[in-house]
Amino acid sequence: MNWLEFPEAKQQTDALANSVASRLSAAIESRGNAVLAVSGGKSPIPFFQLMAEMAIDWKRITVTLVDERFVAPDHPDSNAGLVRAHLLQNRAAPARFLPLVREAKDIAAEVAAACRDFVAPDVAILGMGEDGHTASLFPGAPELAAGLDPANAHPILAVTPQTAPHRRVSMSYAALLQSGSLILSIQGAKKREVLDAAGRAVSDTLPISHFLAQDKVPLDVYWSA
């Protein structure tokens, strides 16, 4: 695990965007295309806006989501809506977008479609909640064991969080381990404390601990106060 600390959020965002752009460009140079998986919520908005101005070959990039709330694409809580509004703009407008939820009617059908469409990301950007969840792998969720199973053959699963609104559609731990690289982006002293605790022992009570302990995929942590 590579740990990078920044005194303020803007410096973190700048460094993250430059690193992600470089990694995507390297994948395009190597293979002709690249896949970026991002997390939702309000925290990534400055990163999305900065990425949208990056001079990279966006028409060769597919953007997808690490996880999504099972809501309509025009719902205020939709991660897809957030990506469309803040990332797929300006220079990034030509990118292909692969959402996890197309319509919020049948979650099993949406999961099946997302599994069929799954492409391993070159770069997957994770967030983390103060409960230690990442993607939508929530502690206490009935589906957590399947979500954290490294041998799970299904890259996408439905999750029913006990502590958050909306059912979720999420990449599994096994799917995320197929990424070219993982980046965890977090801010604040509280999340630093949670991450430090997760680094001491692997436990399903802090799902992020599984990602910290694995050695299959390079993991960079970007943290700012």
Written account of the structure:
By secondary structure, this protein is an alpha/beta fold. Helices cover 32% and strands 20% of the residues. It has helices spanning 9-31, 45-51, 79-86, 107-117, 144-147, 173-176, 189-198, 208-213; strands spanning 2-6, 34-38, 61-65, 67-69, 96-98, 123-126, 156-159, 168-171, 181-187, 219-224. A seven-stranded parallel beta sheet has the order 1-10-9-6-2-3-5, sandwiched between helices. A hairpin with an 8-residue loop joins β7 and β8 (168-171). The model has no long low-confidence stretch (mean pLDDT 97). Belongs to the glucosamine/galactosamine-6-phosphate isomerase family. 6-phosphogluconolactonase subfamily. GO terms for molecular function: 6-phosphogluconolactonase activity. Residues 8-213 form the Glucosamine/galactosamine-6-phosphate isomerase domain. InterPro entries: 6-phosphogluconolactonase_DevB, 6PGL, Glc/Gal-6P_isomerase, NagB/RpiA_transferase-like.
Summary?
By secondary structure, the protein is an alpha/beta fold.
Secondary structure elements and pairings:
Layout: E1 2-6, H1 9-31, E2 34-38, H2 45-51, E3 61-65, E4 67-69, H3 79-86, E5 96-98, H4 107-117, E6 123-126, H5 144-147, E7 156-159, E8 168-171, H6 173-176, E9 181-187, H7 189-198, H8 208-213, E10 219-224
Parallel strand pairs: 1-10, 2-3, 2-6, 3-5, 6-9, 9-10
Antiparallel strand pairs: 4-8, 7-8
Helix pairs in contact: 1-2
Which bin fits the share of residues in helices?
25-40%
Question: N-to-C SSE series?
Answer: EHEHEEHEHEHEEHEHHE
Instruction: Give the integer mean of the pLDDT values.
Output: 97
Number of strand segments = 10
Biggest β-sheet: strands ordered side by side in the sheet:
1-10-9-6-2-3-5
Taken as a percent bin, the fraction of beta residues is 15-25%
Terminal CA distance: 19 Å
The number of helical runs is 8
Give the radius of gyration.
16 Å
Please state the overall shape, judged from the principal axes of the Cα atoms: globular
Largest sheet: 7 strands, parallel
Class per helix and strand makeup = alpha/beta
pLDDT < 50 stretches:
none
Pathway: Carbohydrate degradation; pentose phosphate pathway; D-ribulose 5-phosphate from D-glucose 6-phosphate (oxidative stage): step 2/3
Family: Belongs to the glucosamine/galactosamine-6-phosphate isomerase family. 6-phosphogluconolactonase subfamily.
Pfam families: Glucosamine_iso
Function: Hydrolysis of 6-phosphogluconolactone to 6-phosphogluconate.
